[in-house]
Sequence to fold (73 residues):
Amino acid sequence: MSKNQHVTPRQGQWAVQGEGNSRATSIHDTQAEAIDAAREIARNQQSELLIHGRDGRIRARDSYGNDPFPPKG
Fold:
């Protein structure tokens, strides 16, 4: 089962953490670096990427899972 990947602020840095995990997968100096790392994991696991702002609220999300409604044609 794939886990959604969250990019969250952590003590002046940015963490990548799988949903339900108690520990971060990786810590990065910039949000952009964390997003790149989390995007790669989400693609490999066909899961969602949820990007949190400095306030901790979700500000963006991308889905890399299988599309239940693929385009026809």
Observations:
- The chain has one helix and five strands.
